[in-house]
# Entry
Amino acid sequence: MDLEAARALGAGLAIGLGAIGPGIGIGLLTLGALQAMGRNPDVAGNILTNMILGVAFTEAIAIYALVVSLILMFVGIQ
Amino acid sequence: MRRILVIVVSLAVVIALCGPVTTFLYSGLGKSPYGALPVVSLPAEPLPIPWFGGEQMTNTFFTTLLMDALVLLMVGLGLRHARRGQLVPPKGFLSNFVEALSETLANFAESVAGRRGASIFPLVATIFFLVLVGNWFKLLPGAESIGFLETPHAASVPGYAPREIRWGPVVFYTVDGTQPVARADEAEPAAGTGHAEAAGLCTSCNITPVIRGIATDLNFTLALALITMAIVQAYGIRSQGGRYLLKFFNFPALAKGPMGIIEFAAGILEIISEISRIISFAFRLLGNIFAGTVLIFVISSLVPFILPSGFYALEVFIGLIQAAVFALLAMIFINMATVSHSGEHPAHEEPAAAH
# Structure
């Protein structure tokens, strides 16, 4: 396997595998938040704030994978 | 809130309706005669415009200046009725648009930070409008497609033969997608020679766009993230004084004995958490907007028929959502910094394991 192919493969795998966990995590977070909002609509604003915060922290893990794959694709490794 | 929804939905519908129109401009399904692979480049491309000290201005920086002017113009025009004291502005898209967005943001600031919301709002609204205008402007026709004909800056980018189009007295140059030309290794340096008039000079050409989405450049998003996190610290120190620094360097806890050491270590972890927030701020915006650009490039070169307009409509939503997420997170972080956590239950009130 030549270097270009290995880089493309690595970049694809990095973001593809790295997005699985955060995907599940954001799904669970939103599930919980929406259920809480449905049960108690009065505090929906408060729940929304905390949900966005949680989603942002979860998403950060996918962003690390994105950084790795961007580095693999666009920053040459000699 | 409903007004914004109406605006965004109607914008998306208009863009989706543009699909059939552009489709008739293509002469062949999937085989546009001028179709060339667009340049996908993560670093900003330098434009042949002189700038300070012989440096070349990059296209994202040029666009950022343009967006600054546009935001000032938009908000200035949008607020001129409010400044005159008219509570109900006359019919006008811009006034209503700016007012609806500002009002939503101000309400959210108030619901997050209470009375302090009014002092957080200006900074957050500035970030929001700049990012929003930048994200939407790059969807306009001509952005990321009109530019200078140049030898590609990177060796991995394919080059094409230049092609002339004459519309009466007007002459355009574009690249011929059916004729890829291998790049000569001893090609002239990329600096300055690639202007459209000098198209004869470049044999293996590609187009460097003049206008490119500002959030597709890490320089812009990282600068925004650094400014935001610096202001978060400033707000924390302003509202809590020196006690804010105890969040990071919890020396008093050391006096409490063995358990205090753990609290001190948790304070050090807070520093790492702040730094990782800068990274995630910068790369969240960059990743989403850059991925959107690449998505539209790929879809347009695979199926240049109706389908891309759907993705353009999606990008309108993503542009708004990412601008809102950046602004909301800035707001939440500022609010978290201004609220003292070292009061009653220092051990339990730590935000559980940020990263």
Observations:
- The helical segments of chain A are 3-18, 20-39, 44-74.
- Chain A has a mean pLDDT of 86.
- Chain A is about 85% helix and 0% strand.
- The radius of gyration of chain A is 18 Å.
